[in-house]
Model the fold of this input.
Amino acid sequence: MRRLSRRELLRLSASAGALLLGGCVPGLTTRPEATPAEKESSSATPSPAAMSAPPSAASPTPANSPPSASSVVRVDDMRVTPNDEFYTVDIGRGIPKIDLASYRLKVTGLVETELSLSFDDLKRLSAGTHMRTLECISNPVGGNLIGNAVWEVVPLREVLEMAGLHPNVVELVFRGADGFHTSIPVELAMDPLAYLAIGMNGEPVPREHGFPVRCLWPGRYGMKQPKWLVEIEAVGDPYLGYWERKGWSNEATIKVNSQIETPTNRARIKSGTKVLISGRAFAGRSGVQRVEVGIGDEWHDAQLIQARDYPEVVWTLWRYEWDTTGLEGRFVIKARATDGNGVRQEGVGGGLLDDTFPDGTSRIHAITVIVEA
Ligand SMILES: Nc1nc2c(c(=O)[nH]1)N[C@H]1C(S)=C(S)[C@@H](COP(=O)(O)O)O[C@H]1N2
Ligand SMILES: [Mo]
Done:
């Protein structure tokens, strides 16, 4: 993964600042995630757990898919982002201090029975752990505002069924202890993959990620998934949340996107070596079905590494081995993903906030490498 350089970060925050004056960009408090490439000295040999799957584990290409489609390996040990490397974005009102003993989640509005649930009440509804990737709508092309974790979850539907929704409910409003608020349609709230998270990577949800309870919805960007959740209100009319009122997308459906992690931008490669071009891709509810790596003018199918369970809500890792025998010079490398509906990334990154406002970006990440004798 390309770590944003200091200059790029400054540029990013300068443009974010400009938009902030207009009041329309989520506060960026990014802590770039250390990537395999950065942890290891060589840029061409990453070894995340998932990528060590032997080629023989590759499942055969399904008979009905086009011959050029990416091959897929399904794994249980998909790469997870450690809690202290997981990006954070919030509206900058500080991290609420919540005392677990007095914490209550209120369920109000158009319900048969209003609820006031303690953390223990929620814990009793635990459905175990599930993997889920979270990405910010303002993640720039090639950016780091994306992470994958194993969460302990409570299906939201169970809580809503306990309260009993009136038939005229159209949306659910969610409020965080920091004053943040947003809404989702009732159909998404009843989705079996809509969760309240009560644990993250084997620990309580860390304070900066929403202790003690945060939301996780499938297929939507982070701005729809409140941290420090204290209230759920069932409403009979459409509702606009904090960022939505400033012009950000109300649907906030994740657009197909991908990032090149190795090699790093401007890497120097010795001609004749095999270079691992790798990265990750993510999309909305339909998942990622294909990733192509562009070298110069040619596109090559990458191999996909996907979670065995619900791969569409977990990032896809991808890889392609590039043989540089006989090559020398400057090469532009790109990656473009296609989602489960056949929507493919197009256009190369650029523009204000890399085109993320108002509904996220699908532009292609490109890097340059130098192959030398
Ligand atoms: N209460 C609250 N929840 C919030 C936010 C916030 O500012 N306050 N930011 C949202 C945004 S824009 C994103 S991308 C995710 C980030 O979650 P993380 O900080 O755990 O990565 O939280 C979402 N939930
Ligand atoms: Mo976000």
